[in-house]
Amino acid sequence: MSTMQKGHTVAVVFLLMLIFAPPSNCSYQNILKFLHVSDIHLDPFYDKSIDKTTRCHAAGSTSNADYEAPYGRIGCDSPTDLLELTLSAMREKGDNAKFIILTGDSTGHGLTDDHGSHTVLESMSLVSSNIHQVFPDIPVFPAFGNNDLPGHYILPNNSAWYRTILSYWAPLILCSECQEHVQKPTTIEALSKTFLDGGYYSVNIADGKMILLILNTMYWNDNRYTDPLVEQIAENQMQWFSNQLQLAKDQGKRVLIMSHIPPGGDPYGYNYFWYPEYIKRYVSLTAGKYHDVVAGQFYAHTHSDDFHLQILDAADEKAEEVSTKSFVLMAPSVSPVYANNPAFRIMSLNTDIQALVDYDQYYLDLVIATEFSNPVWKFDYTFSKKYPSKNKLIDANRIDELNQQLISQTDGTYWKGYIQSRTTNYQPSDYDRLPLYCVMRYVFEEDFAKCHEKFKMQDCATSSPSRVVLDSSICSSPRPSTSAGNTKGHPPVTTKSNTEKGAKTIKKKVRQDFATSTPSRVVLDSSICSFPRPSTSAGNTKGHPPVATKSNTEKGAKTKRRKW
């Protein structure tokens, strides 16, 4: 065969390959990846040989653990080793990520009470420098959590706190070591203007195609103190937020929103995180006037893998069908303090249509890591595969669809997978579907109350497999109590006082098998899996159970009960 004939043959083969090649998925041609991590709760006083009755702190402890836990212990906040392992895994799994969002609570619980506010600053500096060391080449966008303040839920009374934090965060936000061709997310002048006012700011993402708004929702949270300065900043931020959404709309850009404490409520104490007027004003923007501008919202605080809807007319069945809506993706935590495995996500954003399309979640099995001294981060799930749908986007319609799938009368797959994911594959707690379903669906407290009342008339004893019971409290399982200490957001951390007596190691705790609850029986109550129901003990009124301390575990303790 001549050279010319060979050339023609190659050309024909190449042409046939083009003709018969499978069509490319155009929707995945311009996908931007970014990392979402939250609730690191770095504890500089963590001691691997101390158990959780004193939050793994050696000071004042008389209880050594039965085994060492260098990578973290269920019931305690994160040691430095866990922070470093997490960042290393994020670098490895998300090496092509373009930026990182950190949705608050970088520092451990109770640091200001025990050691003063300077310890919070030191921890935030340490977290920031560790992140910058591992990710010097991409911007990182942090938000404030309730533990990142001068005191727990205590907002600064001047700009000094924010100025100090800005010195830690500016190199992350502005990507001080990024290559010259990388577009800067914002300028130090623009950043400082709002950051020094109240710790909120905006940045450009996706090569300027979209905007990320970073809020400080502590100003709208109903556990913060009332003060004229705080009230003014709360109003400033709301006005700024509205203006930013209008500006994005005028520019034809969509917006992502992130912060720590979300609007809406928690399924444990039946309480809502924000002042009602701020919830209404916020949702009127995100799910109302600018629902087509908001491409997604990222929050955390509950340490659970979860989803929230924002529907303006959710309580009106007829109006709900045509009501505009928005949604929130709730991130799991790095800290294992609330009986969960550490986790993070890699988000996928289609920049052509400015929409979220998927995410992958990874977790660290602390039981296995501790037992075998081999901390390996594992793939958890991909959203589109765990919750398959004809809708290929992660948007309000998809989360609405998922909300309904969780109470399916014919298929328990979604519910079982959702519950397992809430604690990122640690031993699931016993959850009622009713409060989880209602909290996910109803962002307004009055709508949640109506949801609760609507379905609690069923009787578990007479319900057949074809009958849906939406309230497990009638099935002889006590509803989570809201005794002093926890009215906002979490089951309590397990301690010696409420775990199996005489247990020697975490590895001996048997994980329940949800496979035993068959899809054909649709009683909406996970108590059929025999998990202990979350109780609510003293020391917490906003979003968390109490972390075990001397004050709430050892008899005769002299310290006061804390709010977490």
TrEMBL record:
Pfam family, one: Metallophos
Domain Calcineurin-like phosphoesterase per the UniProt entry, residue ranges: 32-304
Signal peptide (UniProt feature, chain positions): 1-26
GO MF entries: phosphoric diester hydrolase activity
Origin superkingdom: Eukaryota
InterPro entries assigned to the protein according to its UniProt record, in alphabetical order: ASMase/PPN1_MPP, Calcineurin-like_PHP, Metallo-depent_PP-like
Residue ranges with Polar residues bias: 527-540
Biased composition (Low complexity): 472-483
Family note: Belongs to the acid sphingomyelinase family.
Listed name of the protein: Acid sphingomyelinase-like phosphodiesterase 3b
